[in-house]
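We store chain and fold; example below:
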Amino acid sequence: MSANNPFNELPNLPPVVDLETPRVLKAAIAANRELAQLKGYCALLPNETILLNSIILQEARASSEIENIITTHDDLYRAMVIDYQSIEPATKEVLNYRSATWTGYEQLKKAGSITTNIIVAIQKELEGNDAGIRTLPGTALVNDATGETIYIPPDDPVAIQQLLTNLETYLNTDIHPVDPLIRMAVAHYQFESIHPFYDGNGRTGRIVNVLYLVKEELLDSPILYLSRNIIRDKRTYYRLLQGIRENGEWEEWVVYMLELIAGTADETLGMIRQIVKLMDETIEEARKNLPKASYSKELIETIITQPYTKIEHLVQQGIVERRTASKYLQQLEEIGILIATKEWKQKIYINHRLVDLLKRRA
């Protein structure tokens, strides 16, 4: 492979190498164990969905930051409650990541497999356009510091479509009977090397990763926060991808991905436990300090679902009507659970303890 020519000869999957080396298998056992603990804990929760919004927002922010799309926590949480037209472009891109994850998740549940159409739908939601799969040359991966071309992905439209068809087969059949986590690592390399879109490839690929874990029933929902650990050492991530292209160094890449999954699953479980603990503490504090009619488990779950809330959220959830919602949120403010502020002429309530928790875990 030459860095100056499109890699139209990118080999199909599966790789013609033995991936199940002792080192890889040891890492796979550890990663599966950590994922099983995460899935098991979440299965015991009465309402796992209340955690998804915060987890996916964290993942969306980190995954976008890998692509140099930067937004602050406060801007992101504020964007959840203000008029969409008032949101900064970078923050909109992060919110698009969240909605793209949900789009992929919902379509996966219906289809039962990860198809090229689902991948295209994810990228469309991310980018907000219909550009679709690349048909024109000119895409190249460049070193941001030096301007040097590192890799030119396939630019033949026929080759790109054929490679995507092969990737779809690899993700959904047993043409390569290896541990699903090894398969995920291989598929992620291949997707990043095909680079099928003009933009949004990295973020799309990271969403596909967690959806694949859901498809394989290693998770029940897209709750794994992988990008946080990738961004800690982006150079290693990109160096190992390039190591396969140039030297066929599969073992290093697969071990890296397996260790990433294991570490991320452990950290995600820690975050979820802290959110659940905060929810339990908030319920108890409300029970002690408010009239019984002024709070409910559903009310507390709503203010835990996202860091910023407003009257409309309680009304939309069917918890209470508007006047009562205003009263309940004011009472939660009075006992210090929420902090009120004004944004674009509307009153917003900040769950400051949840904000602090998520910032510490970022």
Q: What stands out?
A: The radius of gyration is 22 Å. The mean pLDDT is 88. Residues 105 and 211 are 6 Å apart (CA to CA). The chain has 15 helices and five strands.
